[in-house]
Write a structure and sequence with these properties.
With about 650 residues, the protein is α+β, with helices and mostly antiparallel strands. It is built from 21 helices and 17 strands.
């Protein structure tokens, strides 16, 4: 008796794996960070949106194409107005890698091709291409008489809004429904997505998002393009892949996905391969050209690798399995490797250290680490604060409402992504249900495989951060817009049944009761009132500023809200006396010395203050000062013996 096996679609199998990942993402956004009131708020939002979905879809179905277009235009314009207000009134203090990239790019744009101001680029050369490309943009904005601040933020604004436009366009074009595009537009308008990290901190994540959005827009629409449009789209596709790969090398995940899909179709369905053969070849061409492009950018900027300081690639893997962390960046691991001289010696150390860590975790520990890393990757709670210490000096009116607005923004982000993951989960289940009937659509297969590639890369191999998971947006957005995967509730709009209504009401009642009984959603303690935290970091041997004997440094700071803690950073061995002066009352507060800062703990009312440091020794001392060429770090200049430096600043914080 012959047993006949039914053929299962490979796309359906991949979709089932993605569905399991989406469960982790949903749970993560519901409970992390652990706060009962926040979790209840997210649940309430999800329940209300789920119950009102049929009503919303019925209302949207009655709107004309013209009405939808007008609504989307109004939303987009309103979003852009808010973005410009944020850039002008709410400048953020950028720190860590994006700031180092910014300072080096600014330096290159003014003709200084030295890379020795810190060890950062010798240690992590992956950001060299991004820095050089940014310097070319700054050269252009310099010609237009823009300072670095507006030059950087103009680029962020253009790339961010192009990405949002591409997402809305692809969702509307694919779904053939008004509801999905309008809902996505409202999310971008009311959530922090368009106003915080991507707008205020320029880094490699935003170009990668835009690159993927362009790539999959071209892939989905290729068969419907006429000859001229195919030529233009093909050029754009190649350029997008080149820029995306040189800016963020982990885009190689897309190349692996393209190769796997191409091989599968070559073996199983050559007819389907012909449909997307040209864009797949263009994607591969983009990756091939990215290699000489990256080398050319390094050569043009006179950058040379230095193996004395370079870290082996394996250190990211080793870091991700640190038993003391959850798979995120570990400063202690960086310090350990920094103490070992030479790249080969570091590699020899990691060859022993990595297996030891894996053995220490054990099989169950490794699996649990994968779950932890996936939950961080797919969580969006900390996205608005990525690489930013907060606002330099937010206006008084905004600071009155800043804490509740930040808390609400975080909840909206979590609701939005929990619903996106839930929608993707059900669509993937729909693919699995059709596993014996459906044929493999290469576009859907490539989308799912690319998403799984990113999840696997940061879960199994690399260290993880929530910002890395944002590459899911264009990929999951496409899956949720494809009509053939639409849920029954979208195909046939029907109101919720009485049973569903009572169950929803009961769940809401319980959740609201827990919400009311739980502790406050946010605490004002520790929140910044005014700050400037940008610096090149002593860990990378940043150049220090030498201050002559008995010289005095000072800087004004305006507090738009009462503060209770003040700190100004120093080099660890520096011996400076410090005073904080209230310029309204002329009251002087002596600062207390800690290991690497001068601090003050007391209530500081609103008003104008002056930070004053003095070198009391008979020899020169170095002090921690941040310098740029034309990027304003703080509202007021740093003064050294009455000489003003408008683009220099202390590293300081005032907090509630």
């Amino acid at each position: 008796m012959r047993i006949r096996f039914r053929k299962i679609s490979i796309t359906s199998t991949l979709a089932l794996i993605l569905a399991l990942a989406m469960i982790i993402g949903i749970v993560s956004n519901l409970i992390q960070p652990f706060d009962i009131k926040a979790t209840c708020s997210v649940l309430i939002g999800c329940l209300v949106i789920w119950y009102l979905k049929p009503i919303y879809l019925k209302w949207v179905k009655g709107l004309s194409e013209t009405a939808i277009s007008r609504m989307l235009t109004v939303i987009f314009i309103a979003m852009m107005v808010i973005q410009l207000l944020v850039i002008h009134f709410l400048p953020a203090s950028v720190y860590h890698d994006p700031f180092r990239v910014l300072v080096q790019a600014e330096q290159l744009s003014h003709g200084n091709l030295s890379w020795g101001d810190s060890l950062y680029f010798w240690r992590f050369p992956n950001n060299v291409s991004l820095t050089v490309l940014l310097s070319y943009w700054l050269k252009l904005t310099n010609l237009l008489q823009m300072d670095t601040y507006w030059g950087i933020h103009l680029l962020s604004l253009i790339l961010l809004d192009l990405f949002i436009f591409a997402i809305l366009r692809s969702v509307r074009r694919l779904s053939h429904q008004h509801g999905a595009a309008l809902l996505a537009a409202v999310f971008f308008l009311i959530s922090p997505f368009a106003y915080t990290y991507y707008l205020q901190v320029f880094y490699s994540d935003l170009p990668t998002l835009l690159c993927l959005a362009i790539v999959f827009n071209v892939l989905i629409g290729w068969s419907s393009f006429h000859r001229t449009k195919k030529i233009v789209a093909g050029i754009g596709l190649v350029l997008s892949v080149i820029i995306g790969e040189v800016v963020k090398p982990n885009l190689i995940v897309l190349l692996v996905a393209v190769a796997l899909v191409g091989i599968w179709l070559l073996i199983r369905n050559r007819q389907q391969l012909k449909v997307i053969k040209t864009p797949l070849i263009l994607i591969v061409l983009g990756f091939v050209l990215a290699v000489p492009t990256a080398a050319g950018l390094k050569s043009a900027s006179h950058f040379k690798n230095n193996n004395q300081y370079a870290f082996p690639t394996a250190h990211w893997i080793w870091m991700s399995y640190n038993p003391q962390t959850k798979g995120k960046y570990s400063f202690s691991d960086v310090q350990t490797l920094s103490s070992i001289q030479g790249k080969q010696a570091k590699q020899a150390y990691l060859k022993k250290a990595l297996p030891e860590r894996l053995a220490q975790l054990g099989p169950l520990g490794i699996v649990w680490r994968w779950i932890e890393k996936a939950s961080i990757l797919l969580n969006v709670s900390f996205m608005p604060d990525a690489y930013s210490g907060g606002y330099i000096a937010a206006p008084k009116l905004y600071q009155k409402f800043e804490l509740p607005l930040s808390a609400m923004g975080m909840i909206v982000m979590r609701i939005g992504f929990a619903l996106l993951y839930a929608e993707t989960f059900f669509r993937c289940l729909r693919l699995w249900q059709r596993r014996f009937k459906s044929t493999d659509d290469p576009r859907i297969m490539l989308t799912i495989l690319t998403a799984l590639g990113y999840i696997a890369f940061h879960t199994l191999l690399w260290e993880t951060e929530s910002r890395y998971g944002q590459v899911m947006i264009p990929l999951l957005g496409i899956l949720c817009a494809i009509p053939s995967l639409a849920l029954e509730s979208e195909r046939r709009v029907r109101p919720r049944t009485k049973t569903e209504g009572w169950l929803t009401l009961g769940a809401l009642a319980v959740t609201i009761a827990v919400f009311v009984a739980s502790s406050p959603l946010y605490s004002p303690k520790g929140h910044y009132v005014a700050e400037q935290q940008s610096q090149l970091s002593l860990q990378f041997d940043a150049k220090k500023t030498h201050i002559c004997p008995y010289d005095t440094l000072s800087q004004q700071v305006k507090l738009n809200h009462q503060a209770r803690h003040f700190s100004v950073s120093l080099a660890p061995a520096a011996e400076f006396s410090g005073t904080l002066i209230n310029e309204q009352t002329h009251q002087h507060y002596e600062l207390k010395r800690t290991f690497n800062a001068l601090t003050l703990e007391r209530t500081l009312p609103e008003g104008m203050y002056r930070i004053r440091l003095r070198n009391d020794l008979q020899r020169s001392q170095s002090v921690l000062i941040t310098k740029t060429i034309s990027y304003r770090l703080a509202p007021y200049p740093l003064e050294i013996d009455q000489h003003k430096h408008p683009y220099w600043s202390f590293v300081y914080t005032f907090s509630r």
